[in-house]
Amino acid sequence: MEEPQITSPHVLLFPAPAQGHINVMLKLAELLSLSSVRVTFLTTEHSYRQLTLHSDVLHRFSLFPSFQFRTISDGLPVSHPRTFSCHLPEMLHSFVSVTKPLFRDMLVSHHFSSDLSCLILDGFFSYLLDIDDDFVKVPIFCFRTFGACSTWTILSIPNLIKQGQLPIKGEEDMDRILDNVPGMENLLRCRDLPGFCRPTDPNNDPILQFIVSAFIRSTKFNALIMNTFEDLEGPILSNIRTLCPNLYSIGPLHALLKTKLSHETESLNNLWEVDRSCLTWLDNQPAGSVIYVSFGSITVMGNRELMEFWHGLVNSGRNFLWVIRPDLVKGKNGEIEIPAELEEGTKQRGYMVGWTPQEKVLCHEAVGGFLTHSGWNSTLESIVAGKPMICWPFGFDQQVNSRFVSNMWNLGLDMKDLCDRETVAKMVNDVMVNRKEEFVRSATEIANLARRSVKPGGSSYANFDRLIEDIRNLSRKKTAVNN
Ligand code: UDX
């Protein structure tokens, strides 16, 4: 690694304050730093506290002397739970009314220094700036944490409304196929649309309008960076390129980072404390025998759903490792009475933890399948590890992702909208035993494509090099103008 010079490009990264966004944008920050780009990573005060408490980021990034963290207020009181799934309208309001003006002031006053080459803004935050805001002074690249499949679906919503295919009516057949989403013919049903499309009147739903316009806006910046790869989503990326031709598909980013690092490291960027005892438990299980269960960082469920999953997992007769985040279950979690058969079944075949080193867990040979909420990071991590999935999407992009996992890539089963113990037990056995060969075959094929894409000669590897070269050119141009 070359030591960055004062004339090296300087990039500001600003992710949304959520685990799935910070994790992947820190991986991008690490990749940029390894390419001798100076990085300033802006995050909310709350995320910074959680991150530095539960991960080794400060130590890891101390290898890059020119890397710096900067913080900004999210406008919420310290005690606020900040659960995106429960408090989205309130959090959006705070980002718009507090974070937005603060961020704009920081840019106007050159808070990050006047030598910025470009800004890489999380697509979730695209409403913080406008392409013609003349105080920004540097090109804005938008980073999307969603896959191309969900991004393109959301970008197609205005057309679906125009064509009368949306809104979804109250008593509608949720299996109705949506025509005319280019590249997704005969694939998407109403139930595969993001959760926020389900209101009966999309023309008047403020969250839907907000999200769709933020997506459209993010295609209008100077470039779009996506955590996906051409062999997985090439045809859909071509559709997105009709709106934003300068698109860099550089994923799976966690795998690209592994290629670029010369030493073995985990690059953990957790907002929760990791319990590594699960790795020791996995070491003692037979190969391919464990179903790993995790619903990501923002899913919440009620006691009923918790009990259905729990019974289903125990009744499946398979070994399971289950992540129960401290805030996974809403309501009276502490007061549940746990039936004796669940206690016994869990003692014999299960292990529960609050947070795992997930990438490592998925690559463990004891893990034979993944019961997931279909967050995009989890989907890519499972793809790279070559593990079949059972999908129980919760919201946002996850309904689309799970449809692609099951019906486009044949990587597993989509449990969508069902949550009962019989379905859970049956799907676990289908993925782990009855249809194992079929799913493992496609998972292995796609894992090979993913790994190839991040190696020299692969599409993501080449696109990342192009991104770096384009950033260097921006920096050279700026230096030439200033001289
Ligand atoms: C949401 C969206 O659905 C996702 O598509 C978007 O890109 C980010 O926000 P989230 O619930 O955060 O998703 O899930 P996911 O994208 O899968 O990210 C979760 C991350 O947490 C993954 O990188 C996963 O490895 C990590 N994780 C999860 C752990 O490290 N340990 C755990 O125990 C659980």
TrEMBL record:
Pfam families: Glyco_transf_N (PF26168), UDPGT (PF00201). It comes from the Eukaryota. Gene3D superfamilies: Glycogen Phosphorylase B. Its EC number is 2.4.1.-. GO terms for molecular function: quercetin 3-O-glucosyltransferase activity; quercetin 7-O-glucosyltransferase activity. CDD domains: GT1_Gtf-like. PROSITE patterns: UDPGT. Pathway: Secondary metabolite biosynthesis; terpenoid biosynthesis. Keywords: Glycosyltransferase, Transferase. Residues 11-103 form the Glycosyltransferase N-terminal domain. It is an enzyme of class 2 (transferase). Belongs to the UDP-glycosyltransferase family. This is Glycosyltransferase.
